[in-house]
Amino acid sequence: MDILHFNRPARATEIRPALVGYVGSGDLEVMIEPATDACADIHIHTSTDGSEARWRQVIELIESVTTLPAMRMDIHDFAATPGVIRLRIEQALELAREETA
């Protein structure tokens, strides 16, 4: 098991808490909480040892198409593929950016 931490530049923007996915066979969950500082604080607990390069690539890919909000993101991974990782992170970001009713 690896525990990874990435701190990325972010834009202060209003978001709400979000939760998508679940930890199960080949999947992961992503939880987002708003933050007040201008950084995206990403914490990853993964069952896959030696996966830091893969996680860094996925996060950089997401950053290339969207600006990260100021947030704390917690990810609990159970051997998800890069495609599932990206999908869940993008789902969580979309949900966090939705306006509250």
Automatic annotation (TrEMBL):
Modified sites of kind O-(phosphoribosyl dephospho-coenzyme A)serine: S25
Asked if the keyword Nuclease belongs to this entry, the reply reads: no
Q: PTM details?
A: Covalently binds the prosthetic group of malonate decarboxylase.
Presence of keyword Cytoplasm: yes
Q: Which UniProt keywords apply?
A: Cytoplasm, Phosphoprotein
Where's it found, cell-wise? Answer: Cytoplasm
The protein's matches in InterPro entries, at most eight in alphabetical order, are given as: Mal_deCO2ase/Cit_lyase_ACP, Malonate_deCO2ase_dsu
Please describe what this protein does.
Answer: Subunit of malonate decarboxylase, it is an acyl carrier protein to which acetyl and malonyl thioester residues are bound via a 2'-(5''-phosphoribosyl)-3'-dephospho-CoA prosthetic group and turn over during the catalytic mechanism.
Q: Which NCBIfam families match?
A: malonate_delta
Q: What is this protein called?
A: Malonate decarboxylase acyl carrier protein
Q: What is the phylogenetic placement of the source species in the record?
A: Bacteria, Pseudomonadati, Pseudomonadota, Gammaproteobacteria, Oceanospirillales
